[in-house]
Specification:
The complex is a heterodimer of chains A (490) and B (346). Chain A is 34% helix and 14% strand. Chain A is built from 13 helices and 11 strands. In chain A, the strands form 2 sheets. In chain A, strands 2, 4, 5, 6, 7, 8 and 10 form a 7-stranded mixed sheet that branches. A 4-stranded antiparallel sheet of chain A has the order 1-11-3-9, with no helix packed on it. Chain B contains 6 helices and 9 strands. Chain B: Keywords: Signal.
């Protein structure tokens, strides 16, 4: 009774655990993206991240900045030095990290004070269009030489960026009259890991198996008895007595109840699905990332193009008729080749950012998971199917859980070491005797019975196979009884 | 089975397992990892290429349109002044031949290493071909919110080998114009000294500290040729050339690997030709640039041609025995005045 209760408990717990494991990879599985929003609090018009925020979850990030309808907003990525230099003394909000998985933490930015450049303003005729005194007019960072990526637009703009080494930060600015700081939303792809899938499924499977075999152990005894005394009916008294008998003989090999435990090691070769690959996942959106719109174009064409060259012989200076040319005529091209200080010519190829592609290796987690799911599924049904088998097969094979001769070495060991209650030790010998008698009878008839030991070894290492041959001692008895020579049996 | 009694414990067990697992699967949000501190150039080669490309595009457009006003966007300092004058001359002559070719394909750059502003970078172009000299440029970003602009350029002297520049990863420090400590003379002093030797020649106090160069040779040859023209003696001709540092443009200097610096500075120089009273310097004897700048002025016996020179000097590190030397120069006439008084000549 206690055993049965324990068995049911274990089965339910095993099913529950396995079910939960599967659920973590399906219905309970985390989102494939992390979306976090920064709501500006200050009175500035700009939001700046601190280094590392853009790559906090994944190196590939999509930034969206929104301002009230109709206003202009600019997103730019640059080094922290450049961005804070550009912001200068203007108030801004600083995004310092994640408050939780959906909120970015925002604090008022520490203004860069003493920026010597700021008060000179537009002395050089360049547009410092906003300053600390007029925070309501948002200066526009668009077009600065310092940004490695930028985008401007109305109401809402989106920028995709692949984080790269260096203190790169984001500057989001509401632009124009009455501008306010934009709301910034960062979206990262997240490799949705399923760390509980396999531990739960495997652990649950083990619990299930243990429970099943406990149950089988309980049921197996009456089942075996009924098989033996076919047609004679049950003798409930036996079930009560047998545990006692078992305890009398704990070291009996082939103890039936032990096999569920020995099953666990045998199960292991199936279980270690490498969980690693499932956690990495290629995110296609990183691929096209840094082809971002306006980074190279402006530069690329102009870089290689030289302005229309006048002949060197006609220097620009006012030389000529009356006065020798003062121009530093340095025509010798050959001489220059040595003058070229270093061969470190800038590469003139199109701008390419260093590799930001994610590793292409592992397959998408989804497919892998599915495949595993399929693989995993049979395991569980497999156990139950194996479990009831002892009862029906009782007539042929004395005790199902007995390890096969060629099974994993741990299996024979563990049953021997600790025979748990419920092992019908004596039953086996009786059954053997009975079977031997049957065999002897059949042998007299010359008929060859479909006997388990003769059947080929099942490929599975799982012991609870119906066709599992008896341990060598019993097998020897079989052989002796049937006159089978060694070698035929394996 | 004896089922009913087993249900509550099983449920409790399941609930326990579930809650255990659920609590385990909610890790806190990640913290930003700022990565290692980055030292080195504050402008990457990639950015520099973008910057130079933008400057080149703007300059090319202004040149093509001969529009000095269009230079505003991407040139400043001596470069803007030089180019504006050249474009004006080109417009007057309807000819671009005298507009300096500024190839913007760079073979080498010196990037700024300091985070503040203003920022200066140098670049050396490849040779534009046809025997033309490579050009050394200085770009400057004056304010964080400003654009990089071309501040000056100078054509490298023939056979000049520039000192080794700092790597583009490390960047180079800007040398303050008044830094006397680290160099044999401060950038400002070097430019002033060079202006002095232009004016005074061998009589200059700096004559032995500044290496002679082909630019000075050319100026001397120019003077000699002027003195040998016909009627020079007969008209009592006098020739003088004077130079002084441009007050509006403090030199820009960048450190090079050997501890010295490449200094770019502007020098205002003027050539004065005086003949005896009532003689005239004929317009047809002038260069085309001078003629364009001369415009409708009346010919007279005094002609002052004002030049704006950009000089690129190598100034050795303090303690070095080396002389300051010119590595590149641009010498452009920006004004011509005919100032003689012909009132008494009938």
């Amino acid at each position: 009774m206690v055993q049965r209760f324990l068995a049911i408990l274990l089965i339910l717990a095993g099913l529950g655990a396995a079910g939960y494991g599967v659920a973590t990879a399906t219905v309970l599985r985390g989102s494939d993206t992390v979306v976090a929003t920064a709501t500006p609090s200050g009175d500035g018009t700009m939001v700046v991240t601190v280094p590392g925020v853009l790559g906090m979850v994944d190196e590939s990030v999509t930034v969206r900045a929104s301002v009230p309808e109709g206003q202009k907003v600019t997103l730019a990525v640059g080094t922290e030095t450049d961005v804070l230099g550009w912001v200068g003394d203007d108030p801004y909000d600083s995004v310092t990290g994640m408050a939780d998985w959906t909120e970015l933490s925002v604090v008022p930015g520490a203004g860069v004070t003493g920026d010597e450049a700021e008060e000179e303003g537009s002395a050089d005729g360049e547009g410092a269009s906003g300053s600390a005194e007029k925070p309501s007019t948002g200066p526009d960072p668009a077009g600065s030489d310092m940004w490695i990526s930028e985008v401007s637009g109305e109401t809402s703009v989106t920028l995709r960026y692949t984080d790269q080494p260096g203190p790169y930060v984001l500057l989001a600015a509401g632009v124009g009259k009455g501008a306010e700081a934009p709301t910034v939303e960062l979206t990262w792809p997240r490799p949705a890991t399923t760390p509980f899938l396999w531990p739960s499924v495997i652990g649950g499977g083990l619990l299930l198996l243990v429970g099943v075999f406990l149950l089988v152990g309980v049921r197996g005894k009456p089942g075996a008895r009924s098989g033996r005394g076919s047609g004679k009916g049950r003798k409930p008294a036996r079930t009560v007595r047998e545990p006692l008998e078992r305890r009398d003989d704990p070291a009996q090999p082939g103890a039936a109840d032990e096999s569920p435990f020995s099953l666990a090691p045998g199960e292991k070769p199936d279980s270690p699905f490498p969980p690693g690959p499932a956690e990495k996942s290629p995110f296609p959106l990183t691929d096209d990332d840094q082809g971002s719109p306006d980074f190279p174009p402006a530069a690329a064409p102009a870089w290689g193009s030289a302005p229309t060259p006048p002949p060197y012989g006609a220097p620009s200076e006012p030389d000529g008729d009356t006065v020798p040319r003062p121009a530093p005529a340095v025509p010798a091209a050959g001489a220059w080749s040595t003058a070229g200080s270093r061969p470190t010519a800038l590469p003139s190829g199109p701008a390419e950012l260093p590799g930001h592609q994610p590793p292409a290796g592992p397959p998408a987690p989804g497919s892998l998971r599915r495949r595993r799911g399929r693989r995993g599924a049979p395991d569980q049904p497999g156990a139950p199917s194996a479990a009831p088998m002892p009862a029906p097969s009782a007539p042929r094979t004395p005790v199902a859980p007995a390890p096969p001769p060629v099974a994993a070495p741990s299996q024979p060991a563990s049953p021997a070491s600790s025979a748990s209650p419920g092992t019908p030790g004596k039953l086996m010998t009786r059954r053997e005797r009975r079977l031997a008698e049957q065999a002897a009878r059949r042998g007299n008839t010359g008929m060859q019975p479909a006997v388990a030991p003769q059947q080929p070894e099942p490929p599975q290492p799982e012991p609870p196979q119906p066709d599992t041959p008896a341990p060598s001692s019993r097998a020897a008895a079989w052989r002796e009884a049937w006159g089978i020579k060694d070698g035929e049996n394996s | 089975m004896r089922g009913p009694s087993s249900a509550p414990p099983v449920a409790a067990l399941l609930a326990g397992l579930l809650s255990l697992a659920l609590t385990g699967c909610a890790p806190g949000p990640p913290a930003p990892d700022p990565g290692p501190a980055v030292v080195g150039a504050v402008v990457t080669e990639e950015q520099e290429r973008t910057i130079i490309g933008r400057v080149a595009a703007s300059l090319e457009k202004a040149t093509a349109e001969r529009d000095p006003a269009a230079l505003e966007a991407r040139t400043t300092g001596p470069a803007r002044e030089l180019r504006a004058s050249q474009l004006e001359v080109a417009r007057l002559l309807a000819d671009d031949d005298r507009v300096t070719d500024l190839p913007m394909t760079m073979q080498s750059v010196v990037l700024p290493a300091e985070p503040g502003w203003p920022r200066t970078s140098l670049a050396v172009s490849t040779s534009p071909g046809r025997g033309a000299a490579p050009v050394l440029y200085a770009f400057e970003q004056r304010l964080a919110r400003g654009d990089y602009k071309l501040w000056a350029w100078a054509k490298l002297l023939r056979g000049e080998t520039l000192p080794r520049f700092a790597s583009s990863e490390a960047g180079a420090a800007r040398v303050p114009a008044d830094d006397e400590e680290s160099l044999t003379m401060s950038p400002a002093q070097a430019v002033a000294a060079y202006a002095d030797v232009l004016s005074e020649g061998a009589d200059s106090a700096f004559a032995d500290r500044i290496q002679d160069d082909e630019f000075r040779v050319l100026l001397r040859e120019q003077e000699a040729a002027q003195r040998e023209t016909d009627d020079w003696r007969a008209s009592d001709g006098r020739y003088s050339f004077s130079a002084r540092p441009d007050r509006d443009a403090a030199p820009r200097a960048m450190r090079v690997v050997d501890g010295g610096a490449i200094v770019m500075g502007a020098i205002d120089s003027s050539q004065l030709i005086e003949l005896q009273e009532c003689a005239t310097i004929e317009r047809r004897s002038l260069t085309e640039t001078q003629r364009a700048l001369h415009g409708e002025q009346r010919e007279s016996n005094v002609l002052r041609t004002t030049f704006l020179d950009v000089v690129a000097l190598y100034v050795p590190a303090a303690g070095s025995e080396e002389q300051v030397r010119l590595v590149g120069v641009e010498h452009v006439a920006v004004d011509v005045e005919s100032t003689g008084d012909l009132s008494g000549c009938g």
